[in-house]
């Protein structure tokens, strides 16, 4: 498994790559990709870290695991490839942005445009077997991505963490709330959103207001 990420991350994560769990994880992922159809493509597994350098990072959004349908996952949580129909959670994210910021609903569900501005779109598990949600959970990915969250918390200042839903909210224990701005709300999935736990959270405007208060350029959502 090639760890293809922006060089700025490597000094902070190098120790993780040398740990036994990461070697076991690498072996597991290689086998899975050889024996099954898995997503995202091998070269996009670490796309979140490639598009968002450590130096530019301003915002972290945490997802659970990649989309498991054909041509959907591109290595960024909640994001799909250009030209792919928007999954329900992404539709609800865009609807909230539309009402929160008055921005027209976008054609493309590819969130590389966010990542390139310093939004780390981090899935807790970075790979998945086709049509089997959660199939690569508890194999080591969560150990790695928890280390990433801790690293960002420790070595960065004034990062906005957007924690959506119960799974993401559990990561709050990894974040120093005195140094960073943590916003929590329900998950954008229809199940949660239709019960009133998502719409109206204003996370996108609140995020930009905080960044502006620190003299940091806001995100063009």
From TrEMBL:
Main localization, broad class: cytoplasm
An individual GO BP term: base-excision repair, AP site formation via deaminated base removal
The enzyme's E.C. designation: 3.2.2.27
Domain Uracil-DNA glycosylase-like: 50-211
Presence of keyword Chaperone: no
Active site (record annotation): 65 (proton acceptor)
A GO cellular component entry from the record: cytoplasm
Short name of any one Pfam family annotated for the protein: UDG
GO MF annotation terms: uracil DNA N-glycosylase activity
InterPro entries: UDG_fam1, Ura-DNA_Glyclase_AS, Uracil-DNA_glycosylase-like, Uracil-DNA_glycosylase-like_sf
Catalyzed reactions per annotation: Hydrolyzes single-stranded DNA or mismatched double-stranded DNA and polynucleotides, releasing free uracil
PROSITE patterns hit by this protein: U_DNA_GLYCOSYLASE
Subcellular location: Cytoplasm
CDD domains membership: UDG-F1-like (cd10027)
Keywords: Cytoplasm, DNA damage, DNA repair, Hydrolase
Membership in a protein family: Belongs to the uracil-DNA glycosylase (UDG) superfamily. UNG family.
Job of this protein: Excises uracil residues from the DNA which can arise as a result of misincorporation of dUMP residues by DNA polymerase or due to deamination of cytosine.
Name by which UniProt lists this protein: Uracil-DNA glycosylase
The organism's taxonomic lineage, starting at the top: Bacteria, Pseudomonadati, Bacteroidota, Flavobacteriia, Flavobacteriales
